[in-house]
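Wait, can you check?
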Amino acid sequence: MSIIENINKAFDHRIRLGIMAILMVNDYADFNMLKELLEVTDGNLASHAKALEKVNYITVEKQFIGRKPNTRYAATRSGKTAFKKHIDALEKLIGK
């Protein structure tokens, strides 16, 4: 088996990597929290979150808090597994 086999293309962008890293240590994060922590624009965050949602690595929950819309993200079980394999593969690569 190749060392880079478990390096996942879904995480090849720093914003997607950041989203997943945040969701691995938090049960969920809302749009504004992710935007502040990653220091990205609305459009950038939205498109990368959409890419992770498309491969079923995160779930998106839209709700209203008072009259304000709120979008909340959480990592799925398969997303957490894929991310862990990705990080393990990177660690093995660095260790070589």
User: Anything to note?
Assistant: The chain has a mean pLDDT of 94. The domain at 2-93 is CATH 1.10.10.10 (Arc Repressor Mutant, subunit A). Strands lie at 29-30, 58-65, 68-75.
